[in-house]
Amino acid sequence: MRIRIVDAFTDRPFAGNPAGVVLLDSGPFPADDRLQRIAAEVNLSETAFAHPLPEDAEADWALRWFTPATEVNLCGHATLATAHVLHTTGAAAGTVRFASRSGVLAATTAADGSITLDFPTAPLTEVAVDDELGAALGAEVFSAHDTGENVGDLLVELADEKTVRTLTPDLAAVARLPHRGVIVTARAAEEDAPYDFVSRFFGPAVGIDEDPVTGSAHTALAPLWSARLGRETLTGLQASARTGLVRTTLRGERTLLTGTAVTVIDGELLTGA
């Protein structure tokens, strides 16, 4: 079984968000517990498993994502990484459709190697801010939104970019919140910055203390900041230690996420492991 490690939402190695990518032969997925053990061994925020589908299927490949602890409904960076592997190995070209827990997702590779994902827009529902949330994050919360079933996170607006960048949340307290994870965000501090907003993602409840670049979070960030800034197309900087840029384009119920990727490791899982 061949495993590749791909840095997604970056144009250089050792930045962006690393994802494991496993391309399987046609047929059903291996048993769930085997997929979970492999993801735990790879020990990245997500490992993607994909296999080709018959020609008459609604999509080209079936796709699933696992953190080291659990399977998730939606993952942007590992989908981008999978599309990158399919394109660079010649297994697919142009637009690839993935059948997933979140419906059919499309990934289109451009001539320059950039990849655009077509994902469902997260439905934002504003929720009341309580003392528990502010205490868990260690910062004043300006607004909070539930992001719906597919994403499953809490989107939290903080005072400014500096607050987002310097945040040191109580991860044990964050893990007790009733969401998959917490996205924190603020508007870019400088108007001439090469990005419009910043964010970070914390998901200790699913084995991810901090995710370097979270594609799925940007399906929630896009409608929030497009409404605030009055533009459909924006660029988000995820201000983790590795950093990464995600270009977002809001199309109503769909959000386009564009980025690049780099393969950094190509190896084999030993037979019988």
Automatic annotation (TrEMBL):
Matching Gene3D superfamilies: Diaminopimelate Epimerase, Chain A, domain 1
Short name of any one Pfam family annotated for the protein: PhzC-PhzF
Protein name: PhzF family phenazine biosynthesis protein
Keyword set, alphabetical order: Isomerase
SUPFAM superfamilies xref list: Diaminopimelate epimerase-like
InterPro entries: Phenazine_PhzF-like
Presence of the UniProt keyword ATP-binding in the record: no
Record organism: Streptomyces macrosporus
Presence of the UniProt keyword Nucleotide-binding in the record: no
Similarity comment text for this entry: Belongs to the PhzF family.
